[in-house]
Design brief:
By secondary structure, the chain is an alpha+beta fold. It has helices at 34-45, 56-79, and strands at residues 4-11, 14-21, 26-31. A hairpin with a 2-residue loop joins strand 1 (4-11) and strand 2 (14-21). The radius of gyration is 13 Å and the shape is globular. The termini are far apart.
Length: 80
């Protein structure tokens, strides 16, 4: 089983690619470039990380940014 996956989401009509830790559902990093996201996922899968258990403080800033973007999208939908 893969410990890291790349998941696509659209923000303001632009693709973003989240590298997600599958066991904890933490977003490790977000890229606009799909190839870079897959490269990071490959590196993490091969052992360049925390073996599927990344500490929360390592991804705190990434999660805060991702959550803010999701909230912005939801608020824009409410206006429409």
């Amino acid at each position: 089983m893969s410990r890291y996956q790349v998941k696509r989401r659209v923000i303001n009509l632009k693709d973003h690619f989240d590298v997600v830790e599958t066991l904890t559902c933490k977003v490790i990093e977000t890229y606009e470039n799909k190839q870079m996201a897959h490269e990071l996922a490959r590196l993490l899968q091969s052992g360049s990380g925390f073996d599927g258990f990344t500490p929360g403080f390592f991804v705190e800033n990434t999660n805060r940014q991702a959550n803010a973007e999701v909230k912005e999208i939801r608020s824009q939908k409410d206006v429409d």
